[in-house]
Amino acid sequence: MKNWLFLGLVLLILGSCKEREKTVVADASAIIDSTSVKNTPFLWEAANVYFLLTDRFNNANPENDVNFDRSNPTAVLRGFLGGDIQGITQKINAGYFTDLGVNAVWFTPVVEQVHGDVDEGTGNTYAYHGYWTKDWTALDPNFGTKEDLEALVKAAHGRNIRVLLDVVVNHTGPVTEADPIWPEEWVRTSPTCEFTTYENTTSCTLVENLPDIYTESGEPVELPDALLAKWKEEGRLSNELDELQVFFDRTGYPRAPRFYIIKWLTDYVKDLGIDGFRVDTVKHADEHTWAELYKEASLAFDSWKQKHPNKTLDDTPFYMVGEVYNYAISGGREFDFGDKKVDYYDHGFQSLINFDLKTDAEKNYETIFRKYNTLLNTKLKGKSVMNYLTSHDDGSPFDPKREKTYQAANVLLLTQGTSQIYYGDETARSLIIEGTEGDATLRSFMNWTDLDSLAETKALHKHYQKLGKFRRDHPAIGAGKHRRLARKPYVFSRTYIEDEFKDKVVIGLDLPKGKKSLWVQGFFGDGTTLYDAYSETTVVVEKGKVTLENDHDIALLELAQ
């Protein structure tokens, strides 16, 4: 009798919960079916990552737009435009990312960039993109301050959004009149990479005048005189030297170039609680560097969590995703240099950016989903990929003219793996800018005005919001098992089970307008009440199917409240 009373009390409490979830109480090993954010575990392999250029997203502080006399004329879209860290934080606090279903933000590097400008063959250019480091220990005032970055992380974590810091270890910035070259013990200046073998991809400069760090070296080196002089002028020389001494005493690492940089980058994790790194130019450096970077970043992350238990989101480990240019999920775990294969997953990476999806996107949905379901559950089991259709340096994006924006959204947000929205995908920001050369055309300022004024932009944005929030709330979409339920109309299911958590959804695509029936037999039983998160209507399964009547060509079905 007492047991029945206790069970009744439990059910009464659960019944009063306002979040949409269904709890099945059967025994001690009961599985929870949940669609509530509160009870949904965060999984990097199912995350919605939003990637933006810091300088091109939102300008919240016009007073930091020009520093270091960066005032020379530049080619089109090759100078600083004013976007900053405060601008990202402003949009976090406004709920822009939350409303889009984004639960991780990745922005281009914000460390101090070279002060001067160069002509790299595409017109005069400043380091607006963040990949030309001058000093790893300082933030560039064009982007903001360390206090600004701390405020961003705090704001993001307050909304359950993770922060990915973009990091560069492979090279310094170019040599300019204002930026001397690093000592020859630190960098090589030749030969230029040919990309035909492992050697001429890793032991070379990526392009001309981009000094390459000797990441393979274990030989101790002295700090550059120019860096020491800079620190002295800024009043932090003694502190920087003391911290380096503590680091090398603790680790026992030789004072080789890569270990200095690893120390400097992981300090941001230790001090601010950065959740992960997106690592630039991975295949152009010695792969053992990445395992060492991950080890130190993980220790730094654990240290931050121990010191800030009340600010810790959960027990998710530090995350690293790598940009191995032209890596494709079809190749499995290894990247083939032609004369050598390297498994970067075995060197600190949980995920690699996947260059396959932009071409896969031309195929039908089932072909795409079946491929990713197979590979992520066989060759890549336990690891993942970050999928994208548009990026800052891929000159061959899917749908460059923004003519298939809804198809792009469906492919990007419903394909298994981590999704990476590139800023402006959700607003059809133009990728064809008159007068630009090379990748500058991909890097215009965020088209906020279109979002405020154009009906078609608002409609696309709403589509991304509905898809993004559904994906965020259902890890089954990115990390679950895929099964086709019906060919026409096309209906499929995703299921994710981990310990006591179970997540299951049904999705329909290319649906006809008006009245339509979706086959769910064998997945949801007759009498089950489902909620279509797209049309915001409730339906009941009858004779193995549900019936909807609306003009949408998509349905997002979950267990109803």
Explain what you see.
This protein starts with a helix and ends with a strand. Strands 1, 2, 19, 20, 21, 23, 24 and 26 form an 8-stranded mixed beta sheet that branches. Strands 3-4-9-12-13-16-17-18 form an 8-stranded parallel β-barrel, surrounded by 4 helices. α3 packs parallel to α5, α9 runs parallel beside α10 (288-307) and α13 packs parallel to α15. A hairpin with a 4-residue loop joins β14 and β15. The chain has 561 residues and is α/β, with parallel strands linked by helices. 29% of the residues lie in helices and 21% in strands. 45% of the residues are buried. The chain has 2 domains: 2-30 and 481-559, Immunoglobulin-like, CATH 2.60.40.1180; 44-174 and 257-478, Glycosidases (TIM Barrel), CATH 3.20.20.
Counting structural domains, the number is 2
CATH topology of the largest domain: TIM Barrel
Cα-to-Cα separation, first versus last residue? 29 Å
Radius of gyration in whole Å, from Cα?
25 Å
Main β-sheet description: 8 strands, mixed
Low-confidence stretches: 1-37
CATH architecture of the largest domain: Alpha-Beta Barrel
Q: Tell me the name of the CATH class of the largest domain.
A: Alpha Beta
Please tally the β strands and state the result. 26
Strand content: 15-25%
What do we call the CATH homologous superfamily of the largest domain?
A: Glycosidases
